[in-house]
Amino acid sequence: MEWFGIVALLLLLYYSSYLGKIKHLEMKVKQLEKKQRGATNMSKLINSLVGKQCIIRSDSFLSFAGKTEVSCKIVDADDEWLRICYIEKKDKQVVKLLRIENIDAIEER
Predict the structure, then answer these.
(1) Could you list the residue ranges forming a coiled coil in this record (predicted)?
(2) 63 Rama class: left (phi>0) / alpha (psi -120 to 50) / beta
(3) Which domain holds residue 86?
(4) Cα gap 14→70, rounded to integer Å
(5) CA 30, CA 25: separation in Å to the nearest integer?
(6) What is the C-alpha separation between 7 and 87, in angstroms, rounded?
(7) What residues does 69 pair with on adjacent strands?
């Protein structure tokens, strides 16, 4: 009978910690939802820049342009991606896709 009481107490202690874990997870989900809504708002702002010349700053440019900012024309945009067109050396036109979340700043020219 003593074992039953001890086991019941241990189970009670074990499951009582779940409330804290559940609240922590709910808080994380709310933070992720806020971030997602922020990205949507940013994509709406970027849609107003479609067809305009801009300077885009991003660390992901280092991989394909060799610099952290590029002067380009925004060709198209959706919720996650941005299609840009810029002129490389020797007047070579390049079209690239860039994730909106990787953009640090956009400055309209």
Answers:
(1) 15-42
(2) alpha
(3) 1-109
(4) 55
(5) 9
(6) 71
(7) 57
**Residue 80 is part of a domain; what is its CATH number?**
2.30.30.100
Closest CA to 81 of 64, 101, 66: 101
Task: For residues 10 and 88, give the distance between their C-alpha atoms in angstroms, rounded to a whole number.
Answer: 67
Chain mean position to CA 107: 19
Residue ranges of alpha helices (H) inside 1-109 are 2-47, 61-64
Q: pTM (2 decimals)?
A: 0.60
Partners of 108 in beta bridges: 54
CA–CA distance, 79 with 43 (Å, rounded to integer): 5
User: Is pLDDT larger for residue 30 or for residue 37?
Assistant: 30
What are the phi and psi torsion angles at 81 (to 5°)? -120, 155
d(CA 109, CA 18): 53
Q: What does the H/E/C string look like for 86-105?
A: EEEHHHEEEEEEEEHHHCCE
Number of domains in the chain: 1
pLDDT class for 40, splitting at 50, 70, 90?
A: low
